[in-house]
Amino acid sequence: MMVCTSSTVAENGRNLLRENQCPSSTPPTERPTSKSKEEVNKIVEVSKAAQKSWAKTPLWKRAELLHKAAAILKEHKVPIAKCLVNEIAKPAKDAVVRSGDLVSYCAEEGVRILGEGKFLVSDSFPGNERTKYCLSSKIPLGVVLAIPPFNYPVNLAVSKIAPALIAGNSLVLKPPTQGAVAALHMVHCFHLAGFPKGLISCVTGKGSEIGDFLTMHPGVNCISFTGGDTGIAISKKAGMIPLQMELGGKDACIILEDADLDLAVISILKGGFAYSGQRCTAVKVVLVMESVADTIVEKVNAKVAKLTVGPPEDDCDITPVVTESSANFIEGLVMDAKQKGATLCQEYKREGNLIWPLLLDKVRPDMRIAWEEPFGPVVPVIRIKSVEEGIHHCNASNFGLQGCVFTKDINKAILISDAMETGTVQINSAPARGPDHFPFQGVKESGIGSQGITNSINMMTKIKSTVINLPTPSYTMG
């Protein structure tokens, strides 16, 4: 079995490009180099100029170009998916490029939302005569900076690009260091669709080198970021501009005695181990009632034993995590839990960046993994004696992205959902982002603002009002 490391993943991505398995005859030919501050200034300047013209483009024409881009993305989803396999070690079954459908839906929704305005009259407010008419509509913000994460460098980039464009904004994309090639291929599909030059630009390079300069740039009017705790630093430095932040999560799975245990087991397996646990909506901690904990652990262990481990090109269930530092962090969490008495249901095994799937039973609150996000194929199990204990653990977390509850009692499920301090609660299913038009948001350190196509379009616009002042009516006193 070949073991992929971060360096071999990157090399495979470069090889894919050399083989010209890309969405056009003139794709990027090598991993992009870092931009200088002078280049960033030029890109933002060009983007601002392009946005001025784009904002005057009729809404139906914007939608038409987005539909064209959607068709091109669908035509080339296979080569883009191959890039994801080779560049970020994503198994083929997880490298699903759903971006075309998202772009099409966004075009239609944008026409509906942005095609409407409001008409208000002054005498609807006490003390006023009908002397003022107010016409309000949504207008673009200007330049939107989009920063997607390594694990979804295409789909989550498109979820930012399409709303920005239909709303009349220009877009500067900062692709992740891992996943930049696939992201640039996706952007090239938009260029092939015929969007105006300078409307969609890319700034490549390490965030540590140009991150602050880019996110604090005075020419940026909005930031949409998906990633880890870097987003907290961005929010503190960005200034008075709209922010859309999806950060980390410690998504809790609460399992009650009356749950469909087989369904819960399948959801833990999919939610905890898909793409090696490298998802913000992965199951990060299982809070299971003591009376059914043995059954859950036994059933999950049987499923974990059947997971395939190896390179992404073999479409294995578990593939290497993205960097050596990520693997080291995961190992640190496991060793801490082991030293403090957690039960390792499988032997801990690692080769380079490849970590074998692991279920940790009898985890306690004094263990790091009870609170920290591993972002890897490791799932901790905490046995609870009451529903209240599970809710308390969930709410004591610094995170609040998603959670899930397994029970056959819908009334109890709703009450637990109301009590959980998370952006979304899934009932009888693992945490999940989509469908892409659903609202998607976190609380506490899991984010700012709400995503989803409709929410993103609204966030990337502002209200413009025009007030018509009429002459004051004259009355004849009786």
UniProtKB/TrEMBL annotation:
The active site is at 246. The lineage of its organism: Eukaryota, Viridiplantae, Streptophyta, Embryophyta, Tracheophyta. Its EC number is 1.2.1.9. SUPFAM superfamilies: ALDH-like (SSF53720). Residues 12-39 are annotated as: Disordered. Pfam families: Aldedh (PF00171). InterPro entries: Ald_DH/histidinol_DH (IPR016161), Ald_DH_C (IPR016163), Ald_DH_CS_CYS (IPR016160), Ald_DH_CS_GLU (IPR029510), Ald_DH_N (IPR016162), Aldehyde_DH_dom (IPR015590), ALDH-related_metabolic_enz (IPR051020). Belongs to the aldehyde dehydrogenase family. Keywords: Oxidoreductase. It catalyses: D-glyceraldehyde 3-phosphate + NADP(+) + H2O = (2R)-3-phosphoglycerate + NADPH + 2 H(+). Residues 21-465 form the Aldehyde dehydrogenase domain. This is NADP-dependent glyceraldehyde-3-phosphate dehydrogenase. Gene3D superfamilies: Aldehyde Dehydrogenase, Chain A, domain 1, Aldehyde Dehydrogenase, Chain A, domain 2. It comes from the Eukaryota.
